[in-house]
């Protein structure tokens, strides 16, 4: 058993009887359980209770055993001086204040319904492979799941927005520069995301703006900053770009010492960094003031049309320098465009709304619901339990559920886990 289970029992008053007694058999009446504290200090602030005929206002501390009070050295911490009730599963020792008065104790083991305790033990048993509730996931009411999914989607946007706001402050509120960094990272996908972000951050955005009038110049800049022009290859296109990059490097005083070199290993050729960086150059050369456009667009069709770009002509017959391949268009695929919108544009729009003090989450819901669900192992496993993810809104929510709740065993803070405990 973990303390968070006792937090749940106390917070939602899941008792077998409304009549509670302290260990010395004084009646307890709860007026207010208090504000749940997830940081250091007592577990619940500002509770309101009565013990016998005496009313109390103060903090509530919860432990598995009473002796945990001393094990955690609370008797030495002034933050615990205002504890008015010690709630424990098992009472094994008396707890005293500094003035030697006893802190009243509520022992919960005789007040917790056996069904809830059984459900808790089943939920946290160790025979699970994917998530704690995988064996009972289908039992959860669909309405509860739908409401929870919407909350998780917003929670994920809030999480991403916090990261964007931090970076925006570094960029002195330059939204175009922030968008460029985000797009670079997501053009790199999972394998080269960190590398592409380091490329974006290795050059100031005003240099990108100076080069964007020429797709070839911008491509040269990005490939040069990636380190992919450092070798010697007997290819005219490569040699021309290497020469041009040497000029740009001198002109703008460029440095690549902080850049993480992109990887080709285990990537399908359409995802090679050469192709992705060229596509990124095409995007920024073809769409001036990109942030101004994507931050206000309400139509998914308009957003998709912006990303209908191709790599430069050389790459139609190459995936890497000096190695010819079958000629074909190197366009961004629909699936890749969808990922850019869900991982870049929607979080950016959400962050921008918060920045200017306007909230239009319904529009972001609509955009995400018009995109198909992402395809990865986590979403596939959830859908095997219960076919939930049909749109990007739902797949994003499930990713948030897995990483922020399931993996961290926060079942008691999850609407699904709470529902299963009640059954």
General description of the model:
Pfam families: DUF2851. InterPro entries: DUF2851. This is DUF2851 domain-containing protein. It comes from Patiriisocius marinus. Helix 4 crosses helix 13 (334-356) and helix 8 (215-226) packs antiparallel against helix 10. The mean pLDDT is 94. It is built from 17 helices and 9 strands. The chain folds into 2 domains: 3-112, no CATH class; 153-369, no CATH class. It is of the alpha+beta class and 423 residues long. The protein has helices at residues 3-11, 68-71, 114-123, 142-170, 175-187, 189-201, 205-211, 215-226, 236-252, 273-286, 290-294, 300-306, 334-356, 361-369, 377-385, 392-406, 415-422; strands at residues 20-21, 27-32, 35-36, 44-51, 54-65, 83-90, 105-107, 318-320, 323-324.
Task: Classify the beta-strand content into a percent band.
Answer: 5-15%
Helix-strand category? alpha+beta
Report the uncertain regions: none
Rounded to the nearest angstrom, the distance between the terminal CA atoms is 19 Å
What about the largest sheet? Answer: 7 strands, mixed
Helical content class: 40-55%
Q: Count of DSSP E strands?
A: 9
Run of helices and strands? HEEEEEHEEHHHHHHHHHHEEHHHHH
Choose one word for the global shape.
elongated
Radius of gyration: 29 Å
Averaged pLDDT, please? 94
Give the helix tally: 17
Count of structural domains: 2
């Amino acid at each position: 058993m973990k303390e968070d289970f006792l937090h749940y029992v106390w917070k939602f008053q899941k008792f077998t009887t409304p009549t509670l007694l302290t260990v010395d058999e004084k009646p307890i009446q709860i007026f207010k359980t208090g504000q749940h504290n997830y940081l250091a200090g007592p577990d619940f602030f500002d509770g309101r209770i009565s013990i016998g005929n005496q009313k109390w206002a103060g903090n509530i501390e919860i432990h598995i055993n009473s002796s945990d009070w001393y094990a955690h050295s609370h008797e030495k911490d002034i933050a615990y001086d205002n504890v008015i009730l010690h709630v424990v599963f098992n009472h094994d020792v008396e707890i005293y204040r500094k003035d030697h008065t006893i802190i009243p104790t509520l022992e919960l083991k005789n007040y917790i319904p056996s069904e809830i305790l059984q459900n808790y033990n089943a939920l946290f048993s160790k025979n699970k492979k994917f998530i704690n509730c995988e064996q009972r996931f289908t039992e959860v009411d669909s309405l509860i799941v739908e409401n929870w999914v919407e909350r998780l989607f917003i929670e994920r946007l809030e999480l991403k927005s916090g990261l964007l706001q931090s970076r925006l402050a570094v960029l002195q509120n330059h939204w175009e520069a922030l968008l460029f960094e985000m797009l670079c990272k997501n053009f790199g996908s999972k394998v080269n995301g960190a590398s592409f972000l380091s490329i974006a951050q290795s050059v100031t955005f005003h240099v990108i703006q100076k080069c964007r009038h020429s797709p070839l110049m911008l491509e040269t800049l990005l490939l040069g900053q990636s380190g992919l022009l450092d070798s010697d290859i007997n290819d005219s296109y490569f040699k021309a770009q290497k020469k041009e990059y040497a000029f740009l490097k001198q002109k703008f005083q460029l440095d690549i010492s902080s850049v993480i070199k992109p990887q080709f290993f285990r990537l399908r050729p359409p995802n090679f960094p050469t192709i992705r960086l060229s596509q990124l150059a095409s995007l920024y050369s073809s769409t001036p003031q990109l942030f101004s456009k994507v931050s206000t667009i309400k139509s998914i069709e308009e957003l998709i049309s912006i990303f209908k770009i191709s790599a430069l002509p050389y790459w139609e017959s190459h995936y890497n320098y000096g190695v010819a391949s079958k000629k074909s268009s190197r366009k961004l695929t629909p699936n890749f465009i969808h990922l850019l919108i869900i991982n870049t544009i929607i979080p950016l729009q959400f962050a921008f709304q918060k920045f200017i003090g306007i909230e239009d989450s319904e529009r972001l819901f609509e955009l995400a619901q018009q995109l198909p669900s992402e395809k990865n192992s986590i979403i596939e496993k959830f859908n095997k339990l219960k076919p939930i993810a049909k749109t990007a809104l739902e797949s994003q929510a499930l990713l948030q559920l897995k990483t922020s709740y399931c993996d961290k065993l926060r079942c008691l803070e999850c609407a699904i886990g709470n529902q299963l405990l009640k059954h």
